[in-house]
Amino acid sequence: MAFAFAFLAPWTGEFWNGSNQGSHYSLVKALSEGTPYVDRTRPIVGSGTLDLGSWHGHLVSDKAPGFALFVLPGYEVLRAVGIHDATSEMRWALGLWAAVLPALLLLLLMRRVADRLVPGQGLATAVTFGLGTIMLPFASIFFAHAVAALFCFAAFAVLFAERGTDRTGLVAVGGLLAGLAVTVEYPNAVAVLLLGGYALFERHSVKRVGAYAAGAFAGVLPLLAYDWWAFDSPWRYSRSRDVLVLPFNHYDTGIGGLGAPTVDGLRRLLLDLHQGLFPTAPVLVCAIVGVALLIRSSHRAEGILIAAMAAAYVVYNAGYPQVFGGSAPGPRYIVAMMPLLALGLAASYLRFPRITAVVGALSIARMAAVTATSALAVPDHGEVRRFLHRDFVGTVLDALRIWTYPHPVVKIWPFVVAVGIASVAALWPYVRGRT
Fold this sequence. Notes:
Blueprint: H1 2-7, H2 13-16, H3 19-32, H4 41-45, E1 52-55, E2 58-61, H5 66-80, H6 88-117, H7 122-132, H8 135-138, H9 145-162, H10 168-184, H11 189-199, H12 206-231, H13 263-271, H14 277-280, H15 283-295, H16 300-317, H17 338-342, H18 344-351, H19 353-373, H20 382-388, H21 396-399, H22 408-431
Antiparallel strand pairs: 1-2
């Protein structure tokens, strides 16, 4: 899986010049120059960067600063060793740091937690999530989703490890990680509240409440400091209505573009044939069944938390005008909660091994086809046409100019083989009924 993530290098337009990626990267460059404003760095990144705000005559990124802060050390190291901004080497290397590394750490952590929830099911759970959901395309492109998902899940993992020990230090660490998830993506404030409830589910004391609150506050401190620096107040942020730039930015309603959830938004988010959660990753239906099994097991608190987290993220995202976040291989705004939901696969693999493995294999095949042909394309079955016409994304061979392949198919086969090996190794025992 590590090879599959790292081999792809979608460093053409969809990696670099899209509004989301360009906004993040222009902020990375601005921070490197000692300013929160992207007046100078936005043109360098590309005029396609439209995710912007304006404050006192300065342009600002409309993104939370956490992702840029996460990327900044890697960016500085790459520059220090002589890799220049505009090169494909820089783009591929930043993809390794900003997407591949957090995705791999997340999957390793998922395997460990899933094995503790349902012994022996961790590998299949992690592989199915990593290859059979939209985590696969977002493990190779310059979006904040992999980092946000890592922090959210790590917060849960720490709090899960603390259960039954009454170690308030771990409660504080869980709060810290949850707070950092907010610094990376604002909507993860929902996760802070729900994870706090989980931390206090069985034992609630002033000490535990204080530890979690202090940790969460420490996690959002970088966000508050950035807001004070950029907007003269820790309570004004990059998606405040007096900061967003119109008509560039469509977030002109509600709070940061979030309005009241609608039934149509909910239906589209879950069931849209091209971008809905279940059509793009049908294996998550098995995960929901598994969550129900967890609630009926000795892990009732974990099952309730997962169900509440999934419901909360889905409902509030149904209030966005663009529930899928534009052209994307699925509902990308809910990626941060998806690793938790995918933990239900552990129980599903134990109870319904063959069905879960077959559905998981179908999900993996579709996501692999989408990712190999265009990581940000809507999976409207155009991925099949692109695959048949050998219209593939760039790879590390392109990025580093290692080898000019004689045929387009040659460059993508290492990715396909890596996905196939990981899938067979993890799922074949379930198909054969030998688990």
